[in-house]
Amino acid sequence: MIPNQWYAVLRSEDVKSKKPVGIRRFNKKLVLYRDTRGQIVCLDDRCAHKGVPLSHGKQHGDLIACPYHGFQYDASGRCVHMPVLGKQGVPPRHMCVASYTTREQHGLIWFWTGERVPEALPEVPMFKEFAEYEGFSSRYAWHAPTHYTRYVESVCEVYHVPFVHKGSALNIWDPKGGRVDDFRCQLEGTLIRSDFILRPDDERTAEETLRARLPWTRGWRIGVDVQMPNMVQIRNDVFDVYLIATPIDDDNCWLCICYKEPKRDLLFPMIKPLPIPGWRRVRPWLMCRMERFIQQSKDMAALKGQEPRISSLTANKLISVDKVNAYYLRLREQLTQEALAAQRQALETPTDALPPEQPIHIVPRSHQAA
Fold first, then answer.
1. 3-state secondary structure of 42
2. C-beta of residue 55 within 8 angstroms of C-beta of residue 24
3. Which of 3, 8, 115, 292 has a CA-to-CA distance to 345 between 20 and 30 Å?
């Protein structure tokens, strides 16, 4: 995980009113719920009293109660009511849990990974092609048994598709061959953009394969973009999709994919999808499930046993068409070092030297000792 970044942790629809949700992200157990205004609250999923998960408890308006002794916590993580002390009782100040900064945008719930919350938080990252999109789309999420860096890499390396996806029922429309031509890659701040042609053979030119009509003979013009810290977008003439990999721990990650409705027929891209009533909503929904249970299941089988589990610039021997991976790993290292340096500087700065409008997000002492 890179500190001081926005990471998507759940889809908006995963947190419903009056139903706390317990999740594990960044090696932390978290509970998320909606207050009476519908705003997301995120706390450590551990009662400060005896460590029972708050996600097993119930909501009382804007408060969440521990199921063990009924201790109630507000959105800041402070215990505001302890039934054992009576209605007028005052809970001790140390009875509190850590709270976290979240935002809800683009149909996702985002978590700020910095301990220190700056006065002006950066914008939540999202690809322009999706942020400005007004058509139908669908999101699907699940857990995968791989470190998130390895998943990001696998999505960037589209030239694995003809080999890893081989044998799939959908391989009839997946790219064939594996030769990459006209590869271009550029860095725009924390956005990496690339474009190339993936074609099935050497007998024809790249342009000839792009004009082929049969799905098993055509080439694909593809764009792969990475938005730091953990988002990948794949663009082509048939569909657009983004994929997010958020760390759960060193061996697992939370994945979320989002498909727009296809621009062309999957088997015959020279044909626009037929205007069947209701299918504009169904098509992206169906593509998400196809991705999850067919393509991604094959990807996970290929990644099984990959070593080292966490990727880095020294963990791989990259080739020229892996430039997206190289940029990603370099930026990951750079952003991590910059965030750690900022944290060290913050620790050396006396808290009374900070302006009052610039709060410090500190884990309670009692929770640190636990």
1. strand
2. no
3. 8
**Residues facing 234 on adjacent strands:** 224, 241
Prior bond of 162 cis (ω within 30°): no
- Give yes or no for a contact between 104 and 13, defined as CB atoms under 8 angstroms apart: no
Give the integer Cα–Cα distance in Å for 91 and 80.
6
- Distance, CA of 29 to CA of 192 (rounded, Å): 31
Q: How far is CA 324 from CA 47, 127, 141, 224, in A?
A: 43, 16, 24, 8
Q: Kindly report the number of other CB atoms within 10 A of residue 29's CB atom.
A: 14
Please write down the long-range contacts of 158-161, taking CB distance under 8 Å and 24 or more positions apart.
158/198, 158/222, 158/224, 158/234, 159/198, 159/321, 160/299, 160/302, 161/198, 161/295
Question: What pLDDT is attached to residue 271?
Answer: 64
The overall pTM is greater than 0.85? yes
DSSP secondary structure code for residue 198 in this structure = E
Q: What pLDDT, on the 0 to 100 scale, is given for residue 217? A: 87
Cα separation, 232 vs 309, whole angstroms: 20
Beta strands 108-112; 240-249: pairing state:
unpaired
Q: What percent of the chain stands above pLDDT 70? A: 90
Evaluate if residue 352 carries a pLDDT over 60: no
Residue 368 and residue 52 in contact, taking contact as beta carbons nearer than 8 Å: no
Whether 368 has a pLDDT exceeding 60, the answer reads no
Residue with tokens 């995968």: 144
d(CA 177, CA 200): 4
- pLDDT of residue 188 exceeding 80, the answer is yes
pLDDT at residue 96 greater than cutoff 80? yes
Q: Which residues have C-beta within 8 Å of that of residue 281, sequence separation ≥ 6? A: 136, 138, 261
Residue 204 CB contacts under 8 Å (≥ 6 apart), including other chains: 212
SS3 of residue 329 by DSSP: helix
pLDDT tens-place string over residues 33-73: 999 999 999 999 999 999 999 999 999 999 999 999 999 99
Rounded average pLDDT over 112-138: 90
Residue 364, pLDDT > 70, answer no
